[in-house]
UniProtKB/TrEMBL annotation:
Occurrences of domain Response regulatory (ranges): 3-119
Presence of keyword Thylakoid: no
Residue positions, PTM 4-aspartylphosphate: 54
Keywords assigned: DNA-binding, Phosphoprotein, Transcription, Transcription regulation
GO terms for MF: DNA binding
Location of the HTH luxR-type domain: 145-210
Signal peptide start-end: none
Protein name listed in UniProt: DNA-binding response regulator
Classification via PANTHER family: TRANSCRIPTIONAL REGULATORY PROTEIN NARL-RELATED, TWO-COMPONENT RESPONSE REGULATOR
């Protein structure tokens, strides 16, 4: 029997996952959580085999929760099930230790196969995510060098682009569907990596590199 923990801030998504696995005799729901911190506590309480994890949630996000869960319970496997398939989300989840990554809207059989696969110790990715991974690693060094500020992550470049366009923190959070705290964390990382003292200096550097012009 594979015991799963469902982590999603939308009750309908949790109910849908419960209904999906109810028809399979080898999978049962060990618990639910609506955010990353609750998920960590539930893992310690229920000891599930697989955590089916959303990424973008209020409070502790899925990436940070994945990292915390695997530090506390390394035998647990994490399967990401999210609506986001951008490079930042995919590679952040992989770096945190997720064993699988599916995009919401995946076929029911695909989700069940992924749960069984990660429970068995395998890594599994949906077709669109797999294509993004292949495309990333097949990129030539020359192409990668053309990216402005290669020391930044893709998400940090998005934040810097919006800063250069004059967007305030709350506007950036709304545009990127992330919390204001996450925006502040990204900005702190950007300042440190670019070795700039403040927002004005970051804007100058970003605009000199061509950012902020398409917003």
């Amino acid at each position: 029997m594979i015991r799963i923990l469902i982590v999603d801030d939308h009750p309908l998504m949790r109910e849908g996952m419960r209904a999906l696995v109810a028809s399979y005799v080898d999978i049962e729901v060990a618990g639910e959580a609506a955010d990353g911190e609750e998920a960590r506590r539930e893992v310690l309480r229920a000891a599930p085999d697989v955590v089916v994890m959303d990424l973008h949630m209020p409070g502790t996000n899925g990436v940070d929760a994945t990292r915390a869960i695997l530090a506390a319970a390394p035998q647990t496997r994490v399967l990401v099930l999210t609506m986001f398939e951008d490079d930042d989300s995919v590679f952040a989840a992989m770096r945190a230790g997720a064993s699988g990554y599916l995009v919401k809207g995946a076929q029911q059989q695909e989700i069940i196969l992924a749960i069984r696969s990660v429970a068995a110790g395998q890594a599994i990715f949906g077709p669109t995510v797999a294509r993004r991974i292949i495309a990333f690693f097949s990129s030539t060094p020359a192409a990668l060098e053309k990216v402005p500020f290669p020391e930044l992550t893709g998400r940090e470049r998005e934040v810097l682009d919006l800063i250069a366009a004059g967007r305030p923190n709350h506007g950036i959070a709304r545009d990127l569907v992330i919390s204001a705290k996450t925006v502040s964390n990204h900005i702190s990382a950007i300042f440190a990596k670019l070795q700039v003292a403040d927002r004005a200096e970051a804007i100058i550097r970003a605009r000199e590199a061509g950012l902020g012009k398409t917003r």
